[in-house]
Amino acid sequence: MRIKDIERRSFYLRLIYALCLCGATWTHLQVALVHGLSWDYGGAAPMTRIYWTSLLFIDPLTALLLLLIPGAGLILCVAVIVTDVVHNSWFALHHPIRMDLYLSQIVFLLFVAFTVRTAWRGAASRSAALRAFD
């Protein structure tokens, strides 16, 4: 496969990741607009409240990095979706959750897990090509 094809696939995957993170940002923004940044999420533990509120800022930052600094964006994207699914799985053991949102996170995690290698390869080859011009 040509390097340009790998870079193009990487870009499209990163764009899909970024759009999904923008959707998640919208969800967190709606919560913040309705309840404020200091909402306790119906009595959730302090670390859960901090984590969920922080995603309002981390998700769009990750989306931006995916497009501007792909390597950092991919690392952060994987970290965000893994911690989100792990945290929400733990939370779901003790509290009712919105199953549609939870399942969408699992689907996104699986999509990232199965495609991140391609996204990484294309981002890495793009970085190498840019360094050649320095």
From TrEMBL:
Domain of life: Bacteria
Alphabetized UniProt keyword annotations: Membrane, Transmembrane, Transmembrane helix
Residues annotated as transmembrane: 12-29, 63-82, 102-120
Protein name as annotated: DoxX family protein
